[in-house]
Amino acid sequence: MDAMRTKQVRANETRFPEPEAGEAIVVSKYGDDRRKAVILHPDDFDLFERYRRIFAVREPYEMRVSDTAVAAHDLGERGIDEPDLDVESLDRALA
Amino acid sequence: MAVPAVPGLRGAVVWALVGFVPEAPFRLWHGDEHPASELPDAGRFAKQVREQGLDAQQTFLVEGKLRPVVLLQDRPRNVLREIVGLRMVRLETLTEPAQATIRDQREPSLFHLPVRPSKYGLSKEMAVDLNALVRVHATAILPRAVGRLDDNEMRVIGQRLVQHLDIDFEPLLARLVEERLELLTRPETS
Fold first, then answer.
1. Counting CB atoms within 10 angstroms of each CB, which of A15, A27, A77, A89 has the fewest?
2. CA distance linking residue B52 with residue B8, whole number of Å
3. Nearest residue on chain A to B89, judged by CA atoms?
4. Does residue B25 have a cis bond before it (omega within 30 degrees)?
5. Under a CB-based contact definition with an 8 Å cutoff, are residues B180 and B45 in contact?
6. Cβ contacts of residue B102 below 8 Å, gap of 6+?
7. Which domains does chain B carry?
8. B142 closest CB neighbour out of A75, A79, A93
9. What's the confidence (pLDDT) of residue B4?
10. Taking the mean position of all CA atoms in its chain, how far away is CA B155?
């Protein structure tokens, strides 16, 4: 899973309060009924991202298999990767 | 036929009779007196079983091949006769650029085995295909292993295989970490 999309905003262009590590500042609207944003300390955000990476939904490995791996696999599955028998090795197995 | 000695199979490079994976159309053998039949897909096969009394167990005509494989398991008790291994693939039929990426270990699915007859027992350059898990019966393996992958190589293959098989080992990992933490933080009793 990709990391969370982040957007950079210059500190002097914002009026957000500065959260401490371990603190989440919830910005609410319509009284306290609805959360508009949650402001985290960068350390906590990094930790959150690590958790996301660790516990993210897995992508099937097949999505990462390269063209070379597929080509080699197909040759092997069809038994045509060996144009001749490795007699030397086979003789060793039979010795 | 003599059954191979079972200890020390893990990491062994052996020659074995490996059957190809059955795929459609499925060819069924009905004995020497009758011609083989063919079914186009698994659904048609299941329908014939369900509706026309075809026995669910059939003799399938499937090709097999004598080829080197690397075994992943030991069988010290000799009670489980099927052994999981990985099929290998020869590099020479691949393109040169493809061969180069495998030699440089840039293909996680293909563990490169250079020509080292004294270690791997093969006189051809090969790669272990992490996508080619096979099960071979003990009687289908030639008794004498020709080579062996060492513990480090098997560890790398094992780690990659967990990924290739989409095995979710994180709950296990988390539990082990928790157990370890508990052990480390447990007050010492005098």
1. A15
2. 48
3. A76
4. yes
5. no
6. A68, A72, B91, B94, B110, B112, B127
7. 12-21+62-185 (2.30.30.110)
8. A93
9. 47
10. 15
